[in-house]
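Hey, I was hoping to borrow your eyes for a little while. I'm sending you its amino acid sequence along with the C-alpha cells. Take your time with it, there's no hurry, and the full record follows here.
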Amino acid sequence: MPGFDGWLPARIPDAVAGKLNSRAQFIAADTVTAEIRFVTDAKNIRLTLSAIKPEFGLELLEIRIFFGNFLYQTHWLKPGEISTVMFSPPPVLPRIKDEYLRKGPGIGFAPNVCRVVSQRGSLIYCGIETFGHAVRPPEASEKPAKTCFFYGSSITNSTLDGFPSVACCRLGADLINLGLSGACHVEPELSDWMASLDGWDLAVFELGINALGSIVSEEFRGRVDHLLEVFTSRHPEKPLVLLTIFPSWYRPAFLKDRGDEKRDTVFCEILRELYGKYRTRGNLHLVEGSDILTDCCALGADWVHPKNYGHALMGLNLAEKIRDLL
C-alpha cells in the first residue's frame, strides 16, 4: 500500500478484481474476516497497523484480537494514520485445562495462536515487534483441520458476527469469506479464479439477491451454471452447498401489495433447477434460505439484512445443516 509502508491482505487479487463489476473492484479490498496470525512466546507484542475508511459512514476500523478461539481485545484504528497496538498474552488461558480450550484435535485454534481479525473496511499491516522473541506462522496442528469457503452478497460479506463466522465458530472450522457486498454478480472470471483455489473442504454459495434488478434471469442462470460447472469439475468430491435466497421483502408473499410476482421467485427456481442438473456431477447440496433464516424478526428494518441476532440464528442453523458434510 503506497504511502503506508505496509501490506493490505486483499481477499481477491487486483488482476481478478479488475474484471468484475465496478463495486466489486473495491469491495475485493475489504479485509473483513481476514486475519493476521502468528505464534510467539513474547510477553510484550507491538503491532503497527493502519486502515482505509470503511463504508457507510463508519469513521474507524474495528479489529479484534483473539488468542485461539477466545476474544481478548478490541481496538479501533483511525483511517489514514499509522497506529501502534501493544498488548501482552492473556494470563488466564495457560491456567485452563486443554480440553476446554479446543473442541478436539483439529477443531478450532490452539490458544497460543494470536489472531488479529479485521472488521468491515481495509486493514493494513505495517509490522510487528516482539522485543527479541521469535515469531512464526501457526503450524497445521494449531489451526482447524477443516476450512469452509463462502461466496455471496453483503449477507455473506458480513461483520465478524456474521453467519459465516458464527457457523465456522460453531463447527471449529476455519473461514475463507469472499462475499462481495452489493456486488455478488457471479462473473465467470471470478468463478474460474475461486474454483482454482485449494485449501478448503466445503463451499457455500449464497447467490441471487444482488442479481435482482442488476442481472436478467437468463444471464444469472448462465453465470450460476458456469460456477457450478467449474466447481464440480475441479472439486468433484468436495461438498458444495447452494443456498436459495433468504427471506426478505423481495418475496411477494410478504407484501400487502404483491406487485411484481416474479421478484426473487424466478431466481430461486433457477437455483433449484441448476441443483437438479449438477447434483449427480458432484457433491452438491441444496439448502433453502428459509431453513436458515427461520425468523423474519431477525431482519433489520430494511427487511433484507439480518442483524446480530439474525446472523447468530442463521450461523447456528447452517452449522447443523453442514456438520455431517464436513
